[in-house]
């Protein structure tokens, strides 16, 4: 065989090899992140390689759909993650709330701190991020990823970036899109994950979704979830000073009703238990209805009447101008009311509208 023929064979073999090699981007995983705004079954039907589920916010909110959304991810053999939305309160307390909530999944799910400005009273405080991630690591042995917009990466301290992977949000636009092969500025920030739209449209789900890429495969995902490869047993939360034993609810003079907060209570849960709405009529020691602790006394200052007939949908609230569903029924109560009233768009309620609760 001539030298020219050999050379032609070599060139042909090289071209075939180049055509058959899978681009490195193809190994990257496509995924979604979801919260209580989506249905409890979104992760059962949508097309994805991984799903990151909202678990908690602040110290008093837990996504009511978290368990069902996470269960579908596991049942389908996909990669799972959980995120905590920073409320800006006590960073250690928020980290403990997060870890305690996702405890059954430790070692098998990636953990994330969602750092955004909305409803975050510590926005701009880089040390808050540091305290949170260090607390999570101290209790679990896992460094959480940190999610934020590309414009605010400067808020993440260098020591946090040295330990924690970045999940960067940056959109070229927010036009409806499916999974993209190579999103705009992909990998520019050395990020582990990239969110490139909140208007994603994919098979298996009718509504808009956040779409993301994880820059790696399932094995690399698992390294973030469980760096040691061993079963993770979270350190117990330090025992707080004992609180007075909870006392029964007691009526006050006038319209007030006082309730001693129980472990696991939220204001919307107390409102549902007592039948006293809206949640904004409750007064709490911190001044923030999303920040309550067992043993505290919270007081209702509205015009409602206590009812033993809670949770049946027999009561009616007439919407007033300027009210929102979450404003009336709280961050952990509006979903139940939306379902009870068959609200297709929970953001769209009208003055005079009657809501069963």
UniProtKB/TrEMBL annotation:
Composition bias, Pro residues: 235-249
Domain of life: Bacteria
Record flagged with keyword Hydrolase: yes
PROSITE patterns documented for this protein: GLYCOSYL_HYDROL_F25_2
Keywords recorded for this protein, A-Z: Glycosidase, Hydrolase, Signal
Family, per entry: Belongs to the glycosyl hydrolase 25 family.
GO biological process: carbohydrate catabolic process; cell wall macromolecule catabolic process; peptidoglycan catabolic process
UniProt domain LysM: residue ranges: 258-301, 316-356
MF term (GO), any: lysozyme activity
Source species of the chain: Bifidobacterium tissieri
Residues spanning the signal sequence: 1-27
Protein's UniProt keywords contain Hydrolase: yes
Region feature Disordered, mapped onto this chain: 225-258
Official protein name in the record: Glycoside hydrolase
